[in-house]
Design brief:
By secondary structure, this protein is α+β, with helices and mostly antiparallel strands. About 55% of the residues lie in helices and about 10% in strands. The protein has 16 helices and twelve strands. Strands 3, 4, 5, 6, 7, 10, 11 and 12 form an eight-stranded mixed β-sheet that branches. A two-stranded antiparallel ribbon has the order 1-2. Strands 8-9 form a two-stranded antiparallel ribbon. A hairpin with a 5-residue loop joins strand 4 and strand 5. It starts with 14 loop residues before the first helix and ends in a 14-residue tail after the last helix.
């Protein structure tokens, strides 16, 4: 990352400033976020007199982050940002996600909403709403799903009726809205998908609106209450500290100006709302992958500490039953589980940090071709960066419980909460199946297959470097080369012209998992090369985890590619009466 400081955008920074901000985030995470992580789980938000009530520690933690200027860390100096590289900001935010993901979710949504408005909002919207968001005074949400539609956004019914003053009146209901109500700041900026009457059907008729909880007066202060009403809280398995809400817009709980409907302001052009919202959704998807990684990683570290200190059993082959018991980590199967966790969480960490680097390339590369290449890679990697950590770092949390044994299944140890918190990540911001359909149905064939070609070129460049190094690295390169070749070949088979869409996408989740394993194997080969021949524990541990992933995990893609190449129709051919 030090190389980025030579670019104009990041020229005010040095390695020392990066280290300083990372250390600051680690300190705030430990002192302000981690201490109330258990409290968030035990005292989940409750509804009192129509408002959501949270433990006061949540606000204290978020205010500390805002006061340190970290919410705008990666943003332009023109809006008060520090212009940190995105990869550094991603690493900074990982501290908060690992310490207390429920509290951090409020900040993540606010930052993502601010970025959307910076990209698609008007100057007035930026001045009125974004600046207070980055100061921590206003918070943000994304309001997409509805009770009857779920993830099928084409079927939303929330409507936006235009008014003569250029504003709109919003009517409808939104479900599963994280951060939808609280009193952590002066205002909440809801970014709401709705349809303007008379617009095109389906997703082409969706527009995006900024709907504040409180209308903003001429002097910038929050004024009259808007007609956005908390109708209920959803009670979740985990991730409990983040309010999850049903919101009613325009149902008469409040009547701003004496008129029915919630006051909303169009963001961007009419009927282009989904395109604008994807700016926030894609950022949130990578944030979900990062959060899954952080939860998996902290569970791994806690199970590692437990395995080193818990004494139980004797080594295999020991016949002297009077011999003293050994720590759990002395048992080969426990080391297997720890290696599996390490391979998942550090492989995923490499992936989400690389996505941050791609954002830096998009913002600061010297030429248009490099920026376009970064955009293509980010497009094809986003569904993988969201879903692979959500699946496999959850598996790491599962193994953390297993290593703790019966204790891990109790609430006395944190690992069971980390598992419950992480179980949400394969669901929100687009389920695992939706990401799979996005990857196989759209991303790998976009622009005539340019995105997949860019990914293949990236991986083959690492394969060539590893071959040149020789020895064990070359052997790993051969395995990755074989898996990558199969991925490209199978993609072509699936997208043969005469394959029906239902058959093509029937096994999309298998495709996503296999493609993710290939990409994470690449992150491990990069780490193996970076570790070199050094003899310290860090480098040896990296090389061993890489070996584990290539020997235990990457081979699973073989049968998966075989299944995909056969265009198997088992699921398509199953009648609903057979279940």
């Amino acid at each position: 990352m030090e190389a980025l400081t030579k670019r104009e955008r990041y020229s005010d920074h040095t390695r020392e400033t990066f280290d300083a901000v990372l250390d600051l985030c680690a300190e705030i995470a430990a002192e302000r976020f981690a201490p109330h992580n258990r409290l968030n789980d035990e005292q989940e938000p409750r509804m009192v007199d129509g408002r959501a009530v949270l433990p006061p520690d949540v606000k204290t933690a978020l205010d500390t982050v805002a006061d340190a200027g970290l919410l705008s860390g990666g943003m332009d100096a023109g809006v008060g940002g520090l212009q940190l590289p995105q990869v550094v900001q991603t690493a900074c935010f990982l501290w908060f996600q690992a310490a207390n993901i429920s509290t951090w979710a409020y900040a993540m949504l606010t930052v993502a909403g601010a970025n959307l408005l910076l990209a698609h909002g008007s100057d007035d919207q930026v001045d009125t709403y974004v600046r207070p968001m980055l100061e921590g005074r206003y918070h943000g949400t994304m309001c997409l799903s509805e009770p009857q539609a779920g993830s099928s956004l084409a079927d939303i019914t929330c409507r936006a009726e235009p008014r003569d003053d250029g504003s709109f009146r919003i009517f409808g209901n939104k479900m599963w809205i994280s951060g939808g109500d609280h009193e952590l700041g002066e205002n909440i900026v809801h970014l709401v998908l709705a349809k303007i009457p008379g617009g095109p059907p389906g997703v082409k008729g969706i527009s995006l609106f900024l709907v504040p909880k409180y209308l903003v007066a001429g002097d910038g202060s929050p004024g009259e209450r808007n007609d956005v009403v908390l109708a209920g809280l959803n009670h979740k398995m985990g991730y409990r500290g983040t309010t999850n809400t049903l919101l009613n817009f325009g149902e008469g709980g409040y009547r701003p100006g004496g008129e029915a409907g919630a006051v909303g302001h169009l963001v961007g052009a009419p009927h282009q709302g989904l395109r604008a919202m994807f700016h926030m959704m894609n950022e949130a998807r990578i944030g979900v992958g990062a959060g899954a990684t952080a939860l998996g990683y902290t569970g791994y570290l806690k199970s590692l500490a437990y395995a080193r200190t818990r004494v139980q059993g004797r080594p295999a082959g020991t016949k002297d039953r009077s011999a003293p018991p050994v720590s759990l980590i002395e048992h080969a199967d426990v080391r297997r589980m720890l290696l599996a966790q390490k391979s998942y969480v550090e492989g995923a960490l490499g992936l989400v940090l690389y996505c941050g680097k791609l954002l830096d390339e998009e913002h600061s590369a010297a030429d248009d071709a490099s920026r376009a290449q970064a955009r293509l890679l980010l497009e094809v990697l986003t569904p993988i960066a969201k879903s692979w950590p959500s699946q496999w770092c959850l598996r790491a949390n599962d193994l953390a419980i297993q290593i703790h044994g019966g204790y891990g299944y109790t609430r006395e140890y944190d690992v069971e909460q980390h598992y419950r918190d992480n179980r949400l990540n394969p669901i929100h911001e687009g389920t695992h199946g939706i990401q799979a359909i996005d990857l196989l149905g759209r991303k790998v064939v976009m622009d005539g297959g340019a995105a997949l070609a860019a990914l293949e070129a990236l991986l083959r460049a690492t394969i060539r470097r590893a071959r040149a190094v020789g020895g064990e690295a070359a052997g790993l390169a051969v395995a990755l080369d074989h898996a990558l070749t199969r991925l490209v070949e199978v993609t072509g088979t699936i997208h043969t012209a005469d394959v029906p869409a239902g058959v093509r996408l029937a096994n999309a989740s298998t495709y996503l998992e296999a493609a993710g394993h290939v990409v994470v194997a690449w992150t491990w080969l990069e780490q193996f090369l970076a570790a070199g021949d050094g003899g310290d524990s860090l480098r040896r541990g990296k090389r061993q985890a890489c070996r584990y992933f290539f020997r235990y995990e990457l081979p699973h893609t073989g049968p998966q590619f075989d299944l995909l190449a056969r265009l198997d129709t088992t699921t398509v051919d199953t009648d609903d009466t057979w279940f």
